[in-house]
Each structure stands twice: as C-alpha cells, then as structure tokens.
Amino acid sequence: MTTTLLRIGCLVSSLGSALTVAAWQDAPALTGAAPLVYVAEVDSIIHPVSAEYMIETMELADRNGATLIVFTLRTPGGLVDSTRSIVSRMIAAKTPVAVFVAPAGARAASAGFFLTIAADIDAMAPGTHIGAAHPVAAGGEKMDETMAKKAAEDVAAYARTLASHRHRNATLAALAVTESRAFTEEEALGASPPLIDLVAADVPELLKKLHGRTVTRFDGSTLALRTEGARVVPVAMSLRQRVLSAIANPNVAYLLLSLGTLGLTVELWSPGAVLPGVAGGLLPVAGVFCAADVAGQLRRTPSDSVRPDAPRARNQGHELRPVDSGRPGKPRVRVDDSHGFADPRTAVEPARRGWVLPGSPCSSSGLASPPSDGPRSPVWPA
Q1: Looking at the structure, do residues 78 and 105 belong to the same domain, yes or no?
Q2: Is 155 among the domain residues?
Q3: I need a surface site. Which of 34, 220, 279, 325 has the fewest CB within 10 A?
Q4: 286 in the same domain as 232
Q5: Residue 347: inside a domain, yes or no?
Q6: Pairing between β-strand 136-137 and β-strand 355-356 as defined by DSSP bridges
Q7: How far apart are CA 177 and CA 63, in angstroms?
C-alpha cells in the first residue's frame, strides 16, 4: 500500500511540474512588466519536426506579446520545404525573431544559412560559421547540367531576395549557393554590407547588445527593442517532438529497418518467441516513418506557408479550397511565383520535394524520391 501511494504521489508531482512549466511558458507579458523573451534551442536537422517546433514557438510569442524570440541554432542543414515554412512564418511573425548561431564551434550550414539571413536579427558566437548552400540531387545521383543550373539559380535567387529585404549582403548570400562559400563570424560581420548584425558570446550578452537597437522588419517597418532586464523563458521541444526529431535521421531509419528485418528472421527461425516478431513488425514501420520524414514526403500544408499579407489558413487541408488541375484526382498547388509562397486560398497539398544540398543524409541514402509530374524542389543538407 505504501509503495502504491508513493508511486501515485510521484506521478501527481511529475504531472504538476509539467503543467507548471507549460503554464509558465504560456504566460503572457503583463503591461508594465519586464520584457518577455522566448529562447528556443534548435540542434538538429531542419525537418518537419524542427519546423513545427520553431513555428509553434513563434505562435506562442505572438500570442503572448513577447518582445523577442531567440533561436539558438546549430545545424548541418535540412529540408527545403521545412526551411521555407519556417522562413515564411518568420516573415509573418508579429514578434521580432533573432537567430543566434551558438555556442562557439557551432555552424548553420545550408538550410541553417537561410534561416540566419531571413531573421530580423542574425548573430553569431565567436568561432562559428555559416554558408555552404549549393543544391545537389536527392539520392546523391548526378544532375544533368541544365537541372543543376536551374537548381542553383532557384536557390541563389531565394538567398538574394531574403538578404536584400533584410538589408544584408545579397552578393555573398548568392555566392554561398553558387560557389558553396562559407563565412566565419568575422568575415560575415566585416563584409560590406555585412551578412550578420552582431557577434555575441552567449544569449545574455546578445540581449544586452540588442537593448535599444532599432530593427527593420521585412515589411519595412521599424521597431526599437527593449531587452534590458527581460524575463527569459526557455521553450523546449515536447516529448513527442524530441522522439520524432531523434528518429528523423536516415541512419536511424536504416538501423530500424535492419533491426526489424532481423527480428522477423529470428521469429521465423524460432516461432513463438513473440518479442522478435513484435519488434520486427514495429521497427520497420518506424523506419519507414523516418525515411518519409527525411525525404520530406509528409503530406500536410503548413499554416505558415503564406504571404505576410495573405489570409491565414489553418493546418487542416479540408479548410482549403481545391483547384481543378484538369486531371482527375490531381489537385495542384497554385504558387505566387513572385514570392515563392503558396496561396492558402488555393493550396490543397504541399509542394513536391526533390533537390538536396551537399552533405545531406538524403544525398547518400536515396530516401528522397522525385515527383513524377513536375520539377523537383531543393532539400538542404543535414
């Protein structure tokens, strides 16, 4: 009886702690109180799970009237669709977004480079670097000259438009794509115009340097930051997001598929063992999920893939109106080519995937499959 009561007490205590943390994170900023700053750490490939985490953090900040969001970023790269979703939400966010490449020794390569130059404030810690964002074909196969040129020009134009709207060095941003250039914090800050806004050792120093700084938003409006004495609230991934983020890796996918096959083989050799058969049935399913996640084949329309001035649409696809493509069973996405954002009034499914940048797990795993009915869009390396 005593043991049972202790277990119940521990369960209630854990639940209470979780609810307390959730309530603390979701507490709005009070009028006249200390400025509210949310800090989120992104230490993973940029994929749908990390995109969901970053987008939810921005929505939380907007809902609670935060002064600033700081994403501490270290990533080798990731998926282009996830990157575009995050960037689109950054542009539409009411709360200024700072991307801070840290700590020392970290990098924001490829997809991370685009998140950095797209933010309202981009900062780097000493000893970090950004860049190296040239696209290659998904699966690692060699692209023909025409397709390679199209991929590079498409991604380079994306880099230029983000950099120019943020008043950063568009020439160097394009060179990071076309010539795979990478930049240290000193090179990025010393360029004319610079690629980044400032260098700071850690988040407290970053907030200190940002106090009183005027930030120009994507739409041209300006905002003076007040970060002195800010109430800093960390935002962590949920347990579900941490698990999915951990397994959304091609190496883990192959491991799960291999273990699942081994489990089924053991079960066939020794019928009745049960555990190998159950594991053999579940692990391949998880492995297929990993492969689909990394290849960017999750079929959902992110609520953030909209122009800042377009009507907002929710994630549920049934709330969006289909567009007749002229082919039965083939709804299409209408895209505003001048901005590269899907129109939520006409989108019925996300854009198809296909290209990767060098270093991506997809480039060696062959997990990303090309669409059968159109050009392939980039996926950045991880």
Answers
A1: yes
A2: yes
A3: 220
A4: no
A5: no
A6: antiparallel
A7: 35
- 146 with 284, same domain: the answer is no
Identity of residue 295: A
Three-state DSSP class for 367? coil
Residue 41: beta bridge partners? 72
- Same domain for 32 and 142, yes or no, is yes
Q: Give CA–CA dist 348/344, Å, rounded.
A: 8
Q: What digits encode the pLDDT tens for the residues 240-292?
A: 999 888 877 767 777 777 888 887 787 778 787 777 777 777 777 766 666 55
What are the DSSP calls for 329-359, one per residue?
Answer: T-----EETTTTEE-TTT--SPPP--EE-TT
User: Residue 360 corresponds to which tokens in the numbers above?
Assistant: 């991506």
Query: What are the φ and ψ backbone dihedral angles of 237, each rounded to 5 degrees?
Result: -65, 150
Quick one: 126 and 264 in the same domain? no
Burial pattern 279-295, b for ≥16 Cβ within 10 A else e, equals bbeebbebbebbbbbbb
Residue of 154, 170, 196, 162 lying closest to 87 (CA atoms): 162
Q: What backbone torsions phi and psi does residue 206 show, to the nearest 5 degrees?
A: -60, -45
Token pair for 58: 């921005």
- Tokens standing for residue 74: 């270290």
Residue 164's CATH number: 3.90.226.10
Cβ partners under 8 Å of residue 19, min gap 6:
none
Question: Is the same domain home to 147 and 283?
Answer: no
Q: Residue 258 belongs to what domain range?
A: 249-294
- Give this prediction's pTM: 0.69
Residue 183 lies in a domain: yes
Packing angle of the helix pair 275-294, 250-269 (nearest 10 deg)? 160
Helix-then-strand count for the chain, H and E: 12, 15
Report which DSSP code applies to 317.
G
CB 170 within 8 A of CB 158: no
Domain boundary pick from 216, 239, 262? 239
Is position 208 within any domain? yes
Return the closest-CA partner of residue 166 out of 217, 90, 212: 217
Domain match, 168 and 224 both: yes
Number of structural domains found in the chain: 2
Torsion of CA 232, 119, 207, 51, to 10 degrees: 30
Model confidence over 190-236: pLDDT tens digits?
999 999 999 999 999 999 999 999 999 999 999 999 999 999 999 99
